[in-house]
From TrEMBL:
Organism of origin: Methanolobus mangrovi
Localization of this protein: Cell membrane
Domain Major facilitator superfamily (MFS) profile: start-end pairs: 12-394
Transmembrane residue ranges: 53-72, 79-98, 104-126, 138-159, 171-192, 212-230, 250-270, 282-298, 304-323, 344-363, 369-390
SUPFAM superfamilies: MFS general substrate transporter (SSF103473)
Membrane protein topology class: Multi-pass membrane protein
Protein name, per record: MFS transporter
Keywords: Cell membrane, Membrane, Transmembrane, Transmembrane helix, Transport
Length: 402
């Protein structure tokens, strides 16, 4: 059962949810520009780097499958507070990391926290979102995580590059920020009434309302394609900077990742200027063209065109992903929202985890450029599938209208 909130309560909860999303994902991205440092200090391999992404995404998937609907029974706010606590625990692990297993455990716990954030904190944010403009909630829950990912990666890179503190100092900052978000969340409103059935809710299942089944092929293709590239950048941004762009700068490594993630918010904002299906179509075509440009830039090792193409890819994926999110959320009730969001992110994280798992197994047999080409072929495939599905949806809509 949902609760009726006044405007001040909604804005308090919306700000708390948005800030929490940004900080949880920022904390989860802090290790990314440092992976090349961990590679050297912990004696890791390219396969180990891919496994850090796999550990993160596996944690996300487990969290989404098992805990996604717990907030429907215990309440959004207490589960959101638990999410912030888990993120802080992961930061503590990274403060004391000394070997590859600890690194993987830290990424796994961060994955659990991010998965919970994807379902519970996003649902809390949407529950509290202002009713106008209509596209705001979809743009925020699509954009806040990637803004956080960018800020965390870039912040960690700046601290390391300019010796502003030890690697532990980065995680200590995030522990403080997570505590601040917990304070905001504690004074925010609860949006659902507690009900029985929490044990039953732990049974893994994918929850998607039947009335949006016809929208899934296009949306899933876009989720998988865009997040697969995000997983590639997460695992290999520091290596791309070192091996293909001829620089060992941690700032450049962070910038490579941030250039993909930060513009995502611009794409989310742009999606409000289009109908959802049009945003999906424009977004995925532009994304494919940008990834082709990224791959060419890597082949000839030219940094500026690579970064420009990456920025445009970030805008394109924000446009396509937010359009897909809007197409589904617009036809979903509040009671189905947490389950739908968990399913969306489960699909998205799987789209990032599976290619990275394959790469982890095969990394020793291919160069980094060849791996990038493989990801480009995946994007080409999902682009074709999504365009076909969107055309089919449009024909069905036109027949219904007539």
């Amino acid at each position: 059962m949902t609760k009726k909130l006044n405007l001040n309560e909604r804005w308090t909860g919306f700000i708390a949810g948005t800030a929490s999303l940004v900080v949880v994902y920022a904390a989860s991205s802090a290790p990314i520009p440092l992976l090349n440092t961990y590679l050297q200090t912990l004696d890791l391999t390219s396969g180990d780097l891919s496994m850090t992404a796999v550990a993160y995404f596996v944690g996300c998937v487990i969290s989404l499958l098992t805990f996604a609907r717990v907030s429907n029974h215990l309440g959004r706010r207490p589960v959101s507070l638990a999410t912030l606590a888990l993120s802080a625990i992961a930061c503590v692990i990274f403060i004391y990391v000394q070997n590859a297993p600890m690194l993987l455990i830290g990424r796994f716990v961060q994955g659990i926290a991010s998965g919970l954030a994807s379902s519970t904190i996003t649902a809390y944010t949407v529950d509290n979102a202002p009713t106008s403009p209509k596209w705001l909630s979809a743009a925020v829950i699509s954009g806040a995580p990637v803004v956080g990912l960018s800020a965390g990666a870039f912040g960690a890179g700046v601290i390391k590059e300019y010796s502003l503190g030890s690697m532990s100092f980065t995680y200590e900052i995030f522990i403080v920020l997570l505590a601040f978000c917990a304070m905001l969340m504690a004074v925010g409103p609860e949006t659902v009434t507690r009900t029985r059935g929490v044990i039953t809710s732990l049974v893994p299942r994918i929850s998607i309302p039947r009335n949006i089944y016809y929208l899934l092929p296009a949306a899933i293709s876009i989720f998988v394609g865009t997040w697969a590239i995000g997983g590639f950048y997460q695992a290999f941004s520091s290596t791309m900077a070192a091996d293909l762009l001829n620089t060992n700068s941690i700032i450049v490594a962070a910038a490579v990742f941030a250039c993909l993630m930060t513009p995502y918010a611009i794409g989310g904002w742009l999606s409000g200027r289009f109908e959802p299906e049009e945003a999906q179509r424009i977004g995925i075509v532009a994304f494919f063209l940008c990834i082709a440009a990224v791959i060419y830039s890597l082949k000839v090792s030219i940094m500026i065109p690579f970064l420009i193409a990456t920025v445009l890819a970030g805008i394109s994926q924000g446009l396509g992903f937010t359009g897909s999110m809007r197409s589904l959320l617009d036809k979903t009730s509040q009671e189905d929202r947490a389950g739908l969001l968990s399913s969306i992110y489960l699909i998205s994280y799987s789209g990032a985890a599976i290619p990275n798992l394959i790469v982890a197994r095969l990394a020793s047999g291919f160069t980094l450029f060849e791996i990038a080409v493989g990801y480009g072929l995946l994007v080409a495939l999902v682009c074709i599938i999504s365009l076909f599905a969107l055309s089919r949806n449009k024909r069905q809509h036109d027949l219904t209208e007539n």
